[in-house]
Amino acid sequence: MQVTARAQPNIALVKYWGKKDVERNLPAVGSLSITLDALWTSMAVEFQPGLGADSLSLNDAPAPALLPRVGRCLDTVAGPDRPRARVISECNFPVAAGLASSASAFAALVVAADAACGRSRDRLALARVAGAASGSAARSLYGGYVELASGADDIDVEQLARPADWPLTVVVAVTASGAKPVSSTDAMQRSAAPSPFYARWIEEQAEDLALARTAVAARDFEALGAVAEHTCLKMHSVMWTSRPAVVYWNHVTLRCLQAIRELRAGGHPVFFTMDAGPQVKAVCLPEAAATVAATLGAVDGVAKIMTSGLGDGARVLESA
Ligand code: PMV
Predict the structure, then answer these.
(1) What percentage of the chain reaches a pLDDT higher than 70?
(2) Residues 6+ apart with CB under 8 A from 159
(3) Is any ligand 1 atom within 6 A of the Cβ of residue 25?
(4) 305 contacts 172 by C-beta, under 8 angstroms
(5) The pTM is what?
């Protein structure tokens, strides 16, 4: 049976950075995110007893580099003695460029693989399997506003609000095409010990999460923006001050941040966030989206603008 599932990337407003257990990929801190709707990854999975090896294609081209990670995730879902699988992936946005493509990919993969091997784990169990492959993927199992808590033994993930409860718009400014030079996994491992800011980053996370949770409950855009920009800049400060430093920003990134701050100073409800890559995500109230998109689109060097509302968690699209 071939099962196709789809998931969207999520953007963290309180960031996850650092691992407390590298082996199990357990995040050092909790995080809070919004799931998008316009960007997506689909995964079609079929276990085939006669097959000699797993295969993976991405947008119709073989993708052998990603296969070991995908294979390990399939082992967790279907057991190490599973039949080999044919996996066909489609993604409608740039991959490995700091746009959370691994979050949508592994969220879709676990949902498709779980159904294809005849299991029906609950959402939290699927989130934990996805999180073992890519920390942020656990959040893409859920739609809207999502909080991930990092417990002593495992993660817990819950939806705080549905997309329709507080519909925000995200405008993504692509400031550099192509894959990022350092993966988030590598970057996190290198930044954990050496940054002088790391201990403080961990210490302050509970407070940042509480501020963001309260802002979401109160639909307080200004408060959410303040804490989101603060945790984004703190996360990048940890990266910048690790050895060797990890600097994902480029000059266009900075121009976009400046443009967003100017828009806000001019009364437009918008704030920025960025992940492990040079792309800038502007989160705004829907009435500001057209102005934000036009302003960022006019920034010198911006290669592409994508606009998205908030969407649902990973789900099966079809079984055949
Ligand atoms: O899911 P990973 O292991 O690729 O980590 C991604 C971490 C950030 O995107 C930089 C922050 C976050 O919370 O999503």
Answers:
(1) 98
(2) 142, 143, 144, 145, 146, 313
(3) no
(4) yes
(5) 0.95
